[in-house]
Specification:
Radius of gyration: 25 Å
Shape: elongated
CATH topology of the largest domain: 60s Ribosomal Protein L30, Chain: A
CATH superfamily of the largest domain: OmpA-like domain
Largest sheet: 5 strands, mixed
Number of strands: 5
Strand order of the largest sheet: 1-2-5-3-4
Structural class: alpha+beta
Strand content: 5-15%
Helix content: 25-40%
CATH class of the largest domain: Alpha Beta
Number of helices: 6
Length: about 250
Amino acid sequence: MGKKHAHHGGAWKIAYADFVTAMMALFLVLWLTSQDEKIKEAVQRSFTNPFASLTKESSGIIPQKDIPAVSRDKGGNFDSAAAVELAMLRRLNEELLKALEKEIDDDPQDPKPIKLDLTAEGLRISVFDRAKKPVFKLQSSEFTQYGDWVMSTLAWQISLFSTFNVELEGHTESGLKPIRENFGDWEISAERASAARRKLIEHGVSAGQIRKVVGFGDTVPMPQTPPEDETNRRITVMLKVRTGKGNGA
């Protein structure tokens, strides 16, 4: 009668699995610590809300389609930090649409009071100072209650994405009479841009993020819009992608 072979326990399999898991965890930690702050922030967001992707088109960190071109480094590789920033801009665009949805879609017949444009430079947010829904008090740089709500909502969302530079522009339509001598389109557009800067900082945006505040008067009308149209009376908040090392723009 042959000898029966003794069964060896499966403890070694468990030990081996633990070892592989530990090595994988070590690899992930080493990889993460070598990345820049933008990628770390994106990874943190994915763990905070694992079921929400950074973009509609992507289930991971890097967007897959319909985004501006991403720069390459000297070795011809994609700039992963820039790709993450673009993905985060898409996420911010979606979050702003949700936060401002009621105001944007309140009246289908009424021109939209806020316009979001995702460009190769970043995300451009145009806030229109319309007569029906004024953002500023008449011929003033003081916000209305509605304008205060819009800017505080923008500030809260922007403050969650601290890796972007912010540029602020003030614009007016043509044909306005000066409020007083030596205080016309240039002055009021500049003062409103400055008021927007103060409001963003008041509601959580870092002062270091804001890199430019400028008034353009009536010199930059909206595309395909008559210069005297009230649509040109607006504040533009531009969130710019930092695509290169040491590049603040």
